[in-house]
Amino acid sequence: MSTLRATAPDHLSDVAGNGRREPVGTAGGRRLTDESGYTHYRIGEVRVALRSDRPDVLEEFASLYSPTAAPSDEVTSDCDVIHMEVRQHRSLLGMRRFEVLGDNVSVKTVRSRRELLPYLEWGINYRLIARPSRYLLIHAASLARNGQGYIFCGASGAGKSTLAAALIARGWTYRCDEFALIDRQTLRMHAFPKALCIKAGSFPLMAKLNLPLRRDRCYVKALKGRVGYVNPPSASQPGGDTSVPVKHVFFPMFRGGTQPRLFDVSPAKATMILAGQALNRSTVGPQTIPLLSRVVSDAPCYGLESGTLESTCEMIESATAPAGK
Predict the structure, then answer these.
(1) Which CATH fold would you assign to the domain 135-195+232-320?
(2) What's the pTM?
(3) Angle at 258 between CA 252 and CA 263, to 5 degrees
């Protein structure tokens, strides 16, 4: 594994945030950048290292996630870390293009600077899915409340991120708006608190929920159009074991202008829906269905037709309240 060096990009020299200037390449006395130029991050249970010849890319990513050291006693090998890189190229005609790589595999090339951060974020997801993992990765928003885990599973456009944001504003603990990380041994849900990627149509709602866009900036991503990023207040890096058991599974479907409604989903049907949203089922293989059957055997599952956000959140909180409350 790479040893660590005492240099880092200039924009990381003040990450301690305590009003005094740290020695370059350190935070709280810990070095951040290894000899290959990668700055290390821990996003919940997922370790990411990033390097680039574009300091602005490094700075933007560091504004979403706090850089951390990666000492040898925490990382057993480079295989434990997703290595991301952004390179700038110029054609013979002088036109710029930017290449995003994950684990030395090219995952996307874009021309617009405003596309870089969304595709860097997407590249991390892509590599997480492609790697062998101790987790079963479900395409879902995941949150926690009162020491219990809740999964909101649905296809793109089902309103998972918006619902997650509304529940966060009501005090729920954020885990991820794109994945539920289910440990294949313990069946407990782990945190991967990436910044919420919000579509332009939901910008006013985020302001109303007091979840402002990070730096009030917009980016561009194919299909989604303009997007921004929100750092939820409960998305700080966890310390120690923050895994939770899965208490309930919801399958949201947005029905604007209607009253929200919950209805039971059988364990067999829930298992098949979740299996269809298991993003790494090709690497997990035949264990996928038995694992999900075990998850839903102890976690009641509901279809959720959501109406207004407030009434939907109230119904969810009522359905998940501890007995006697």
Answers:
(1) Phosphoenolpyruvate Carboxykinase; domain 3 (3.90.228)
(2) 0.83
(3) 45
